[in-house]
Amino acid sequence: MKLSEKLQAFREFAGKAWRLSTPYFSSDEKWRARGLLAAIVVLNLGAVYMLVLLNEWNRVFYDALQNKDAAVFWRELGRFAWIAFGLIIIAVYRFYLTQLLQMRWRSWMTRHYLDRWLAHQRFYQMELARYARGENAPPDNPDQRLAEDMNLFTSYTVGLSMGLLNAVVTLVSFVGILWTLSGSFGFSFQGTDYSIPGFMVWMAVLYCVLGSIATHYIGRPQIALNFQQQRYEADFRHHLVRVREYSESIALDKGEPVERQQLGLRFTDVLGNYLKLLNAQKRLTWFTAGFGQAAVVFPFIVAAPRFFSGAIQLGELMQIASAFGRVQDSLSWFVDNYSSLAAWRATTDRITSFEDSFAELRRQDHATGSESASDGDSLAIDDLQLALPGGAALLGVHGLRLAAGDTVLVKGPSGSGKSTLFRGLAGIWPWAQRALRLPPDFATRAMFLPQRPYFPNGSLRDALAYPEPANKHSDAELQQALRDALLPDLVPRLDDHDAWGQKLSGGEQQRLAIARALLKRPRWLFVDEATSALDEAAEATLYERLRERLREQDGALVSIAHRPGVAAWHEHQWVLEPGTQGGPRFVVAAR
User: Fold this and answer.
1) Which SS3 state, helix, strand or coil, does residue 575 take?
2) pTM of the entire structure?
3) What angle do CA 138, 144, 146 make, to 5 degrees?
4) Which domains are present in the chain?
C-alpha cells in the first residue's frame, strides 16, 4: 500500500472514531462528560508534573549517596515520601474518574443505539436486509455490538486517548530536561569536527522511530484478526442461544449430532482465528519485549563515556537515565499500545458498520406512499405494492375494502404473500408502496396475531399483557382472559416467572396470544394462522369468542388460514388468484 493510501486510510479511520466519539460530549450529558474529561486531563498533567519532580529528585538523591552526605540523604527520603503520596492520590482518582467516564459513556451509547435499533422496526428491517444480501453480510450479531462493542469502544477510546495525552505531555516536559543534561556529542570525519547538541534526545527519537516502524509491520495482521475474532465469538454464542431457544424441536428431531457439528465448526473458527491472533501477538511480543529490555540499558551505554570521564556524577547519570526513560516511553507509546490499537480499530469498524446500516436503511427505505383517514369507518386498500427484499415484485393489491363488522378469510397458496400483506398493512414491511385509507382508530386499536407469538421472560401477567404494562389490567380481567382462552390451569400462576416461549406448548402459546386479544379488545384484528396448533373444537370455541368480542366493538376480523373449518367464521373471502398481468391479485368472493 502506498504512503498516500495509508494516510487516506488513517484519515478515514480517524474520522470514524471522531464521529462515534463526539455525540456523547454534545449530548444532554455533555457538561458532566466534559467535566469528567477535564478532571482526568488535569490529573494526567499533575502526574507528569510529579514525575518531573521525581526526575529532579533522582539527581539530588544519588549525588548524596555518591558524596556520602547523610543529611541530604534523609531529607530527600522525606521529600520522596511526599512525591510518592501525591502520585498515589493522582493514580487512584485518575483510575476512578476514568472508569466512571467509561461507564457513563457506555451507558449513553448503549441507550442511544438501543433507541435507534428499536425505533421504526429497524431491528426487524436490518435482519431482513442482511439476509437479503447473505447471512454473513454486515451488520452481523447486533446483540454483540450493543452489549460488548460499546463497552470495548469506550474503554479503548478513553484509555488510549488519555495514554496518548500523557505521552505527549511527558515528552514535552522531559525532552528539554534530557536535551540540557545530555550535552553534545562531538566527532571528527575526514578532518572536520562535528558536534551534535542534545545527542541523547536524537538517540531516543531514532531508537523509538525505528521501533515504531518495525512494530507496525510486525503487528499489522492483528487488526483484521481482531475484527474476525469478535465476529466468530459472536456467531458461536448466537448459535448456542438458538439451540437453547429451539431445544424442544431439536430434541424431537434428534438433531443433537447436527447441532454438535455446527457448534463444533463455529468453535473451530473461534479457536483457529484465535491461534492466528495468538501467533501474531507472539511475534509482536518478541520484538516489544526485546525493545523494552534494551531500553533499560541503552541510556547508560550512551552516557557511560561522560560518566567515566568525570564530566557528570552518578546523580546526573541517574537523572539522564530517568529522563531518557520518560522520553523513550513517550515515543514508544505506539509500540507499547499496538495490540490495543488493533483491537480498538476492529471495534470501531464494527460499530461504524452498525452505524452505516442505519444510514443505509434510511437511504434505501422502500416503504413509500401515503396513509390518510378513510371517509367512513373502514379500511381501504387503494394500492399496495409488495416486493421481496431483493427487489422482485411479490404482490399487488388494489381496491380491497374492510368495513367495521366485516369478517374476511384470506386464501391463497402457501408462500404467495398473504402474511406479507399483513406486514404491509401493519407498516413494518420496508419494501412496500402504499396508498391506504385507514379508520381513525386503526393505529391504536388494530392488533395482529402471528402464527408464532412472542412472550417475554418474566411473570405470566407481563407475558399476557405485553406490550402494555400488566398493571393496566386488574387480576380479574387477566384471569378471565385466560379462562376465555381455554387456559384455566394458568389462572393461579399470574405471578410465576418463567420462559413462557419455551415452557408452554405450541397450542398453549397460541391460546395465550388469543387471550391477549380477548383482554385488549381490539376493533381491527388480523389473525395469521394463529390457531394452527389447536384442535378443531378449541379453534371453533376461540373463533366464536373472538367474533363475539369484535361484534361488541363493532370490529372487523381478517384471518389467514388453510383449515376449511375456519371459513365458517367468516362472511367474506379475499382469494389470491394468478393474474394475467402484473402478477397475482386478490378477488373478493362470498363465502
Assistant:
1) strand
2) 0.72
3) 95
4) 3-185+193-363 (1.20.1560.10), 368-590 (3.40.50.300)
